[in-house]
Amino acid sequence: MSVRDLRTAPRDTLLYADVAIIGAGPAGLAIARELANTSIKVLLIESGGFEFDGETQLLNRVENVGQPSRNEASERLGRGYTASLAWLNDIPAFELRNRCLGGSTHTWVGKCAAFDEVDFRQRAWLPGSGWPFPRQSLDAALERAADLLNLGPNLYDERLNGLLRSPPRDSGVDHHLLRSFFWQFSHQRTARGEPMRFVDVARDLRAPNIDILTYGTVTRINVEPSGRRVTSLDVRSLGDNKASIHARTVVLCSGGVENARLLLASNSVMPNGIGNGSDVVGRYLADHPRTVIARFKGPDIDRVAEHFGFFGLTHKGRSHFYLHGMSLSPELQEREKLMNCATYPVQTFASDDPWAAVKRISRGSGSRLPGDIATVLRSPGLVAGGLYNRLIRKRGLPRKSAELRFDVMVEQPPNPDSRVTLSRMSDRFGTPLPKVDWKIGSIERESVKRLARLMASEFTRVGLPRPALAEWIVNDGDGEGVFMDMAHPSGTTRMGTDPAISVVDADAMVHGVDGLFIAGSSVFPTAGHANPTLMILALAIRLADYLKARNHKTAAPERDDARDGGTFSGATS
């Protein structure tokens, strides 16, 4: 594998590849990894480098004209990040994108789940819903994606209970109304407790057919005069160096905002942008609106935590912990014409929580050491019980908590008026900024309210503590409910069989443009409620399999190695 920094490359470098991948986040790196050590020459193009770079991040600016508006309430709610990642709550909506190798995994906590079967169905109450293939067709790719993420068993419903060492006690909640839902967390294989960072996947790509171009921002995708075949890419560096990349196959993996923006901005042949003959590119923008629906305090916290929290198992010699929450049942969704949504517990730890002190002591935090030791010594039972819970019962640590809250993430319906267009403002390369108009409708709010009220009534019925519901839910005041984006933009280049309402076909190729493919959450027809990374990887792996078969049938583009930069050489990683 060779790595070249475009900032220091020869001027007007010309490069060739069989497959050019735009974006080295989870999707792009998963595809490159699957194509490694084949006869296919792959060039991976990344706007940043191996490390987080503030100047490069400035390219993420958007013009936000939709929700959430920048106000005190949304800033106070944030995205739910805590501790060392709390600063991410302050990044404006739709600007939380990472222009560096590894992409979004630089700033995630590793939370993963697969989409439900209902997410793939054509639902009569949701116009535009339905995927072009069933959920079951992705099972094998999901298993490969889970292995890449170092996950445990790929189960997220009640079936997981049979595998857990000490499963949650049955609460008695009516499963025809609310069902169990689990999330698990991706971890580094070599650094337990650290979320998996895909920059390490990039470093491990030691295949002779894989090359990486860093600090290269693609500013235009070029197509033939007919518009029916992709030909090349224009690339710029912050130092204003330029490169031209010629490839028979291009895979756009730049995320839910940038994928649409780049298609729209590549308008020299097609005035409305590539793949936008039906004015679909950028439409159907969805995210996962998040808010807090319920809170518990005092002794109620421990009673609820017996049923909802972290539960573990051993898989392939390693411990894996799953977070247990609840979602609206599929039958309730259909009966009441609601969206898929789920709620999960989040603990706010007390200032004298001994396990927080133990963690700080293990990291060698000097200034707080005497106080932390005293905190641990004052709670020997909680520490001993925590060790037993963690190591023997495979349960979450018992914590001293000031509050237990339940957050919710809700699916959005396909809405063509929620969209990304081009702004009149431009970035430093002259490329128009994305103009983001994200809309949250009444069906999302009604789904969240229904889940919260069912939670309160069912907890009361079965003898669990009744939660204090959010005031806007109690008052039925939709306008008072504050939601934040979760930096999960999707749907803007959605997949489907009808070009009138989709951008890519079932193989993820842009309708009518041979050789141009898209990977990532932007191709989701609907996005469910689950965090998207696992599904992104499954679709990327599926696409890589297709590209292998496709490229074995075609010859590599003609190369002119006489020009400077025609062969890829540089620092070898």
Structure commentary:
The protein is an alpha/beta fold and 573 residues long. It has a domain at 1-61 and 98-151 and 191-287 and 419-425 and 489-573: FAD/NAD(P)-binding domain (3-Layer(bba) Sandwich), CATH 3.50.50. It has 14 helices and 20 strands. It has helices at 26-35, 54-57, 72-77, 139-148, 199-203, 255-265, 300-305, 330-336, 354-362, 369-377, 380-391, 442-462, 471-474, 533-551, and strands at residues 2-5, 13-22, 42-45, 63-64, 111-112, 178-185, 210-214, 217-223, 230-236, 242-252, 290-296, 310-315, 318-328, 341-349, 401-410, 419-426, 432-437, 468-469, 516-518, 571-572. Strands 1, 2, 3, 7, 8, 9, 10, 19 and 20 form a 9-stranded mixed β-sheet that branches. Strands 5, 6, 11, 12, 13, 14, 15 and 18 form an 8-stranded antiparallel β-sheet that branches. Strands 4-17-16 form a 3-stranded mixed β-sheet. Helix 1 packs parallel to helix 14 (533-551) and helix 4 (139-148) packs across helix 14. The protein is globular, with a radius of gyration of 24 Å. The termini are close together. Residues 18-256 form the FAD dependent oxidoreductase domain.
What keywords describe this structure?
about 575 residues, alpha/beta, FAD/NAD(P)-binding domain, nine-stranded mixed beta sheet, 14 helices, 20 strands, about 25% helix, about 20% strand
Kindly report the oligomeric state of this protein.
single chain
Mean pLDDT: 91
> What is the fold-level CATH name, i.e. the topology of the domain at 1-61 and 98-151 and 191-287 and 419-425 and 489-573?
FAD/NAD(P)-binding domain
Structural class: alpha/beta
Helix percentage? 10-25%
Poorly predicted spans: 555-565, 569-573
Beta content: 15-25%
From the alpha carbons, calculate the radius of gyration and give it in angstroms.
24 Å
**What's the end-to-end separation, in Å?**
6 Å
Q: CATH superfamily of the domain at 1-61 and 98-151 and 191-287 and 419-425 and 489-573, please?
A: FAD/NAD(P)-binding domain
Query: How is the biggest beta sheet arranged?
Result: 9 strands, mixed
Tally of DSSP helical segments: 14
Number of strands: 20
CATH architecture of the domain at 1-61 and 98-151 and 191-287 and 419-425 and 489-573: 3-Layer(bba) Sandwich
Query: What is the CATH domain class of the domain at 1-61 and 98-151 and 191-287 and 419-425 and 489-573?
Result: Alpha Beta
From the spread of the alpha carbons, the general shape counts as globular
